[in-house]
Amino acid sequence: MWYKTVFAVLWFSMCSLVALRTGTYAKVGKILSRRPGREALLLGLALLGMGAVPLTYLVTDWLAPFSFSAPLWVRVSGAVTYGIGFLLLFWVHLTLGCNWSPFLEISKGHVLVTGGPYRWVRHPLYLAFYVMAVGQWLLTANWFVGFLGVLLWSVFYLARVGHEEKMMLDFFGREYKEYMERTGRLLPKIRRIL
């Protein structure tokens, strides 16, 4: 059961970071907000896959029938993968500062962040959660927890990223268009690395 303890520590760390950042987000004034009802629904799906279902796995045996046998190396690689995703998430939040919002919003004094992980990709926060979702699947060795985490995060990402980029283009214009040309959405453009 060591893996449940490791997963609990990693999961709680991720939740604590997001809760802390949500508290600081609430203090920042907003000047532009897009689709608040739709955004709340999408966030609810993401929270279900990366929050409520993993918590259910940690505190009950309800999801035990979905567990599969996994060798030690799979569980360890899951812990490492989740940890890497968490470190990326932490780096993203340090880089964004007061420019972060859980919703599609532009805040007062909003600037286009192009440093840190944003130097290579436009959406490292989404990448961090994808990495954590895969790590969650491997570490828990549970089909329901793993598949639902990846599926619901994918729904969130695919339903949101186009709207987010349109909002950024509308607000930052040419500056964001040029930024798009030199960065990838989730993975760096090969020519930028070389």
| Rg (C-alpha, Å) | 17 Å
Secondary-structure class = mainly alpha
**Regions with little confidence, pLDDT below 50 for 5+ residues:** none
Number of domains: 1
CATH architectural name: Up-down Bundle
What's the number of extended β-strand segments? 2
Give the N-terminus to C-terminus distance in angstroms: 43 Å
Determine the mean pLDDT: 92
Bulk shape: globular
Q: Give the class-level CATH name.
A: Mainly Alpha
Question: Widest sheet: strand order?
Answer: 1-2
| SSE pattern | HEHHEHHHH
Summarize the amount of helix as a percent range. 55-70%
Q: Provide the CATH topology.
A: Four Helix Bundle (Hemerythrin (Met), subunit A)
Largest sheet: 2 strands, antiparallel
Beta strand %: under 5%
Q: What's the number of helices?
A: 7
Description of the structure:
The protein has helices spanning 2-25, 36-59, 72-96, 124-140, 143-172, 174-182, 190-193, and strands at 30-33, 105-107. It is built from 7 helices and 2 strands. It has a single domain (2-15, 70-193), classed as Four Helix Bundle (Hemerythrin (Met), subunit A) (Up-down Bundle), CATH 1.20.120.1630. With 194 residues, the protein is mostly helical. The termini are far apart. 24% of the residues are buried.
